[in-house]
Design goal:
Chain lengths: 115, 112
């Protein structure tokens, strides 16, 4: 158990809909990262928050947005969903603000299926 | 574009044998990390090796880094069925403080 909690574990929805994925980082971790993993592929970095502020942006679509709340949990909002958005969405957390200085702790992911 | 590229894409060996996976990258790095992912699960950190280190060990894992060749290898000795997973390398490019660049992974299958 990494200590990172993601909900929901599975989500099935239709094209054009909007969903919200939630992540609670490990206790004490200030950084939250969101990643997208399509079938049998590597991780695509979406966005990072550090202590409530956006720290880095990756290949995040304009239809997607995220935020980190004062209690440090984070939400990833996906709107106008398309079939190609079907993927595993991972949240990871770390103590430090820079992912390259230490390990990331990953949640179990939210599997999104868009029909 | 992918910074880290793992090789091979898939590897199937008998239990007890050693497994070697490689990761190549394009630009100079601060460090390189290896992660394991069991099917459909979250990633688990295995080891981090810094650019000034050449080799690191952790239990049955041995990681090497050759910065002149821009490559790293992960060796798992005396493999077990529980080692069946995908293994990813993640590089921290110099000058990119906030992003790790991930490879597509090596899928390792350990046959009993």
């Amino acid at each position: 158990d990494s200590g990172v909690t993601q909900t929901p574990k599975h989500l099935i929805t239709a094209t054009g809909q909007r969903v919200t994925l939630r992540c609670s980082p490990r206790s004490g971790d200030l950084s939250v990262y969101w990643y997208q993993q399509s079938l049998d592929q590597g991780l695509q970095f979406l966005i990072q928050y550090y202590n409530g502020e956006e720290r880095a942006k990756g290949n995040i679509l304009e239809r997607f947005s995220a935020q980190q709340f004062p209690d440090l949990h984070s939400e990833l909002n996906l709107s106008s969903l398309e079939l190609g958005d079907s993927a595993l969405y991972f949240c990871a957390s770390s103590v430090v603000g820079r992912p390259n200085t230490g390990e990331l702790f990953f949640g179990e992911g939210s599997r999104l299926t868009v029909l | 574009s992918q910074q880290g590229e793992e090789d091979p894409q898939a590897l199937s060996i008998q239990e007890g044998e050693n497994a070697t996976m490689n990761c190549s990258y394009k630009t100079s790095i601060n460090n390189l990390q290896w992660y394991r992912q069991n099917s459909g699960r979250g990633l688990v950190h295995l080891i981090l090796i810094r650019s000034n280190e050449r080799e690191k060990h952790s239990g049955r894992l041995r990681v090497t880094l050759d910065t002149s060749k821009k490559s790293s290898s992960l060796l798992i000795t005396a493999s077990r069925a529980a080692d069946t997973a995908s293994y990813f390398c993640a590089t921290a490019p110099v000058g990119s403080n906030y992003q790790l660049i991930w490879g597509a992974g090596t899928k390792l299958i350990i046959k009993p």
